[in-house]
TrEMBL record, chain A:
GO terms for cellular component: nucleolar ribonuclease P complex. It comes from Sphaeramia orbicularis. This is Ribonuclease P protein subunit p30. Gene3D superfamilies: Metal-dependent hydrolases. GO terms for biological process: rRNA processing; tRNA processing. It is found in: Nucleus, Nucleolus. Component of nuclear RNase P and RNase MRP ribonucleoproteins. RNase P consists of a catalytic RNA moiety and about 10 protein subunits; POP1, POP4, POP5, POP7, RPP14, RPP21, RPP25, RPP30, RPP38 and RPP40. Within the RNase P complex, POP1, POP7 and RPP25 form the 'finger' subcomplex, POP5, RPP14, RPP40 and homodimeric RPP30 form the 'palm' subcomplex, and RPP21, POP4 and RPP38 form the 'wrist' subcomplex. All subunits of the RNase P complex interact with the catalytic RNA. Several subunits of RNase P are also part of the RNase MRP complex. It comes from the Eukaryota. Residues 225-265 are annotated as: Disordered. Component of ribonuclease P, a ribonucleoprotein complex that generates mature tRNA molecules by cleaving their 5'-ends. Also a component of the MRP ribonuclease complex, which cleaves pre-rRNA sequences. GO terms for molecular function: RNA binding. The keyword Transmembrane helix applies. The keyword Acetylation applies. Pfam families: RNase_P_p30.
TrEMBL record, chain B:
It comes from Sphaeramia orbicularis. This is Ribonuclease P/MRP protein subunit POP5. It holds the Pfam family RNase_P_Rpp14. Component of ribonuclease P, a protein complex that generates mature tRNA molecules by cleaving their 5'-ends. It comes from the Eukaryota. SUPFAM superfamilies: Rnp2-like (SSF160350). Its main location: nucleus. The keyword Ligase does not apply. GO terms for cellular component: nucleolus; ribonuclease P complex. It is found in: Nucleus, Nucleolus. GO terms for molecular function: ribonuclease P RNA binding. The lineage of its organism: Eukaryota, Metazoa, Chordata, Craniata, Vertebrata. Keywords: Nucleus, rRNA processing, tRNA processing.
Length: 265, 169
């Protein structure tokens, strides 16, 4: 079975179970203003709050915390801020072309959100989009605005088609930014809906399953090592483990990152 | 042999208030789907729905909210892509807020039926830990054992779904 992901702003766990998701990310949208500069502390969910198991699966549903930063200025994103560490996933929502370029090429984030409620303020260019794809950053299109209102539907579809044209269907994730229980859709339906966004059948299926999973792994890597780990073999007995092989780190006397080259951001 | 092929979509209608499910009937669901496809895809999307023999609601269970929709095979994806945009169904004067969750796509009703029986069995398993007394547990266990595909009739999962509906309350 696929590992799927949905982002919501409210907590309806049983619904996710019945609809068929195995991993859920709860999103907090943070818009920095002159007054609010810090993300408040009590928004992060503890992992033990909902121990729910899905029928037919041995693992309980996994709940992740996600932060979305609405950026209208480059000072809004502070990579060294401590509060970012408490969230599992980090996303940015750039509102200008320069910020989009910066987010794709340099910022250490997992997801870049595409605006779906208004006309695109800038065009997508191949260079930053390809740069983001190489780094493993995903582009997110959310569909609940399309479900709510007809005008939003046009903007969503138009913006999503523009994105898919530029990125050729790679590294796109589809999520619901659901605020109510009735705005959630199941994974099959979300995949089918993304056919309207110009994705092919295979890309649509990936957009709700494997790309989401790769984003989660990218986030784990980002949290643990601060960048892309490039391992080199020093000598037979001192061979450092690859990033995927986490179990063996416990056997080493020294931490892994002393022996590897770090290609940080 | 030339045969008209179709796709059967097994959907579950999720509502916030389970009592509203009982108000559903197949004409209301049909009207809701037609209306949404017309809104989303215009005349091009609504045209295949004029095939009265192929676009039908084949089965509707008001207790659990399961519905079988039949679409023509050549354009079912287009019509399916309009289903997530259904936000409410108008039935007998009431407007029921709901959303469609597609569980399975099959070529024949029989495959959908088999899937539904497996799905209902899983739902019953899920309800077993939530039982309050031994009597309910026995009922559910009996229902799970009775889940099987009987020839020609869909008794098995109707029975299971009724006991499920009792448990939900």
């Amino acid at each position: 079975m696929w590992s799927r992901k949905v982002k919501v702003n409210s907590y309806f766990w049983c619904l996710f179970l019945s609809v068929g998701f195995s991993t859920v990310a709860v999103n907090y949208v943070f818009e920095p203003t002159t007054k609010k500069k810090q993300v408040s502390h009590h928004l992060v969910l503890r992992s033990g709050t909902a121990v729910l198991s899905r029928v037919g699966r041995s693992r309980p549903i996994r709940v992740l915390n996600r932060l979305t930063i609405v950026m209208s200025d480059s000072s809004h994103y502070r990579p060294t801020a401590a509060e970012y560490r408490r969230f599992d996933l980090l996303a940015v929502y750039p509102t200008t072309e320069k910020l989009f370029h910066a987010a794709c090429m340099t910022y250490d984030v997992d997801i870049i959100c595409i605006s779906v409620t208004e006309k695109l303020p800038f065009f997508f260019k191949r260079a930053p989009v390809n740069g983001a794809i190489e780094r493993g950053v995903a582009f997110e299109v959310s569909y609940s605005a399309a479900i709510r209102d007809a005008t939003m539907r046009r903007y969503t579809i138009a913006n999503a088609i523009a994105l898919v044209d530029t990125c050729k269907g790679k590294n796109v994730i589809v999520s619901s930014a659901a605020e109510k229980r009735l705005e959630l859709r199941g994974p099959h339906d979300a995949a089918n809906l993304s056919l309207l966004f110009g994705l092919s059948d295979a890309d649509a299926k990936e957009a709700v399953s494997s790309t989401c999973r790769s984003v989660v792994l990218h986030a784990e890597r980002r949290k643990s090592a601060g960048g892309i780990i490039h391992t080199t073999k020093t000598s037979p007995e001192e061979t450092p483990p690859t990033p995927d092989d986490r179990t063996s780190t416990a056997n080493h006397k020294h931490p892994v990152w002393n022996k590897t080259d770090m290609i940080g951001p | 042999m030339v045969r008209i092929k179709s796709r059967h979509l097994l959907c579950e209608i999720n509502v916030t208030d389970r009592n509203c499910l009982l108000l559903l009937d197949d004409r209301a669901v049909l009207a809701a789907v037609k209306d949404t496809v017309l809104r989303m895809h215009g005349d091009y999307g609504a045209a295949p729905l004029c095939f009265l023999c192929v676009f039908l609601v084949k089965y509707l269970n008001a207790h659990t909210g399961i519905v079988f929709l039949r679409f023509p095979k050549n354009c079912y994806k287009l019509l399916w892509s309009a289903l997530p945009f259904i936000t409410s169904i108008e039935s007998r004067g009431h407007k029921i807020s709901c959303f469609f969750n597609c569980l399975h796509v099959g070529g024949t009703i029989r495959t959908c039926q088999k899937f539904l029986i497996r799905y209902n069995t899983q739902q019953l398993h899920r309800m077993l830990p939530k039982c309050k007394n031994e009597e309910e547990k026995q009922e559910i266990r009996q229902a799970i054992l009775n889940c099987s595909l009987l020839r020609g009739k869909k008794e098995a999962f109707e029975e299971a779904s009724e006991s499920e509906e009792d448990e939900e309350e």
